[in-house]
Design brief:
180 residues, alpha+beta, Helicase, Ruva Protein, domain 3, two-stranded antiparallel sheet, 5 helices, 4 strands
Length: 180
Amino acid sequence: AVLRAPLDDGRELVYRDVRRLGTLLLLDGRGWTRYSSAIGPEPLENGFTPERLGESLGRSRQAVKKVVMDQRHLAGVGNIYANEALFAAGVDPSKPAVKLTPDDHRRLHAEIRRILWAAIDSAGTTVRDYRTGTGEQGKFQLELLVYGREGEPCRRCGTRLTGTHAIDARITVFCHRCQS
């Protein structure tokens, strides 16, 4: 465990980050204000709209997947969920974000929210070592359509799924036929 913090009610908060992808910050009120003003909208809040997503995407010529995962543009969308949302929305992950249409924004907005809610309802995604706060494995990995399936047939069209590290140094798995 990286951090163990006893709580007033006798329970213990344990921060464990085996893959070392997280960050733990201890902030006062002013620090939180500064930090939270530097990150993008939370996709599960009511204020996150297709138009707000379009504003964030429209400011970048980078690949849409890279922008979706950039916390300055959108808070909390990791690699697994970015892959799945882009596939579900039919958006090519390497497409420059600025080139997405309002229709792309609407589809991607809906799929980001749907996939994040589905992952929460399934207690997360256990690919290797993830566990919930009670030690259980997540179950969303059973619903993955592209992530972790490089070289396998697309479940929609049968085309072989492609994997690349060229977009953002993280694995991106996509279908050339379903994502344009």
